[in-house]
């Protein structure tokens, strides 16, 4: 059993809790770097898809899990990041400039959307973001000279300082690009949590009344959360466009927004690990269902609605029996083993979602 003794407030600001945790993540990074050598192109493509979903999950997790603002419209920001990156490259900008700029533009757009939306709470905020996602479909069609409309667009191969990266012919290079963006996004998220702004996000999530009493500017904090969340989501959208090879107005539908939200709920709200665990479920579920139907004598014909139904069933089971998600369950198991035989079931009693002070709103 590892027991951490904190002798300074700086211990709460460390990137890793202890040396053992740092070594574990270092070993994980070594494995991730070696994956193109260990796996074939199919499974490498699946892992790449998991990482892209994880980036999008980190973006939504920052807004919903960290600052408590529910959103069902992040597909619109995925679309904006994807189209912005492609259009900027078509205008002559190199990828190393167009890709970060696409995320920044998406973040600024998210802050503009947040100005009227931050006055809403709960289901009303979710409905407003749904409207943004639905409108994005029509906007893409109306801006056909820029977006290609229904016909869509085909992103050009990525060129970084003369080094070409193509998703289909060079999956290893594309995987390393996605891995680099994933590491940067994760470190950005982790360091944000250690900063005063990240603590302000958590304060707004737990109780807006208490946060106001502590001097947190609620509208500004929510707008910044929206902007940073949309920036990371825009990067995920740009990578999704490259991974798919082609995209149009139907690629980033409302279903994608719902899938993103369900993904972070299943993985575990409020944790970086939850974004990655939820992304693994979303990415591998279709393959698992396909192999299961083949195992039980399936004819190879896809069953309409099977994937959506199973995903919804998994979500319902988690909401009923494990609201903290996969990562929350893992924390309970780990804590039980660390404290055995002194662990008690009451340690994990479910807490109320809101403080009593929230009734004053």
From TrEMBL:
<feature type="transmembrane region" description="Helical">
    <location>
        <begin position="295"/>
        <end position="321"/>
    </location>
</feature>
<feature type="transmembrane region" description="Helical">
    <location>
        <begin position="254"/>
        <end position="283"/>
    </location>
</feature>
<dbReference type="InterPro" id="IPR001851">
    <property type="entry name" value="ABC_transp_permease"/>
</dbReference>
<keyword id="KW-1133">Transmembrane helix</keyword>
<keyword id="KW-1003">Cell membrane</keyword>
<feature type="transmembrane region" description="Helical">
    <location>
        <begin position="70"/>
        <end position="89"/>
    </location>
</feature>
<dbReference type="GO" id="GO:0015658">
    <property type="term" value="F:branched-chain amino acid transmembrane transporter activity"/>
</dbReference>
<keyword id="KW-0812">Transmembrane</keyword>
<dbReference type="InterPro" id="IPR043428">
    <property type="entry name" value="LivM-like"/>
</dbReference>
<feature type="transmembrane region" description="Helical">
    <location>
        <begin position="95"/>
        <end position="115"/>
    </location>
</feature>
<feature type="transmembrane region" description="Helical">
    <location>
        <begin position="20"/>
        <end position="38"/>
    </location>
</feature>
<feature type="transmembrane region" description="Helical">
    <location>
        <begin position="44"/>
        <end position="63"/>
    </location>
</feature>
<feature type="transmembrane region" description="Helical">
    <location>
        <begin position="223"/>
        <end position="242"/>
    </location>
</feature>
<feature type="transmembrane region" description="Helical">
    <location>
        <begin position="122"/>
        <end position="143"/>
    </location>
</feature>
<dbReference type="Pfam" id="PF02653">
    <property type="entry name" value="BPD_transp_2"/>
</dbReference>
<protein>
    <submittedName>
        <fullName>Leucine/isoleucine/valine transporter permease subunit</fullName>
    </submittedName>
</protein>
<keyword id="KW-0472">Membrane</keyword>
<dbReference type="GO" id="GO:0005886">
    <property type="term" value="C:plasma membrane"/>
</dbReference>
<feature type="transmembrane region" description="Helical">
    <location>
        <begin position="174"/>
        <end position="192"/>
    </location>
</feature>
């Amino acid at each position: 059993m590892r027991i951490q003794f904190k002798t300074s407030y700086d211990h709460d600001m460390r990137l890793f809790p202890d040396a053992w945790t740092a070594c574990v993540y270092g070993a994980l990074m070594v494995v991730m770097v070696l994956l193109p050598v260990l796996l074939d192109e199919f499974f490498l493509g699946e892992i790449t898809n998991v990482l892209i979903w994880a980036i999008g999950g980190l973006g939504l997790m920052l807004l919903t899990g960290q600052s408590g603002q529910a959103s069902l419209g992040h597909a619109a920001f995925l679309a904006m990041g994807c189209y912005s990156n492609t259009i900027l490259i078509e205008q002559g900008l190199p990828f190393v400039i167009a890709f970060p700029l696409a995320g920044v533009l998406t973040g600024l757009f998210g802050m503009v959307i947040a100005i009227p939306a931050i006055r809403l709470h709960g289901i009303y905020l979710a409905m407003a973001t749904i409207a943004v996602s639905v409108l994005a479909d029509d906007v893409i069609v109306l801006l056909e000279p820029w977006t290609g409309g229904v016909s869509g667009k085909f992103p050009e191969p990525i060129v970084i300082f003369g080094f070409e990266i193509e998703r289909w012919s060079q999956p290893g290079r594309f995987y390393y690009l996605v891995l680099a963006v994933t590491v940067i996004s994760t470190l950005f998220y982790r360091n944000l949590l250690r900063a005063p702004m990240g603590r302000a996000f958590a304060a707004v999530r737990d109780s807006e009344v208490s946060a106001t009493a502590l001097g947190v500017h609620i509208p500004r904090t929510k707008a910044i959360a929206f902007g940073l969340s949309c920036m990371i989501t825009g990067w995920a959208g740009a990578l999704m466009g490259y991974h798919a090879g082609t995209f149009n107005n139907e690629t980033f539908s409302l279903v994608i927004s719902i899938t993103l939200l369900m993904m972070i709920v299943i993985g575990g709200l409020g944790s970086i690990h939850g974004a990655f665990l939820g992304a693994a479920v979303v990415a591998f579920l279709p393959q698992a269902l396909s192999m299961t139907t083949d195992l039980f004598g399936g004819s190879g014909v896809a069953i309409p609605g099977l994937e959506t139904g199973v995903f919804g069933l998994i979500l319902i089971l988690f909401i009923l029996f494990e609201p903290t998600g996969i990562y929350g369950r893992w924390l309970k198991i780990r804590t039980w083993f660390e404290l055995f035989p002194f662990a008690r079931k009451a340690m994990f009693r479910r807490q109320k979602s809101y403080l009593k002070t929230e009734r004053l709103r």
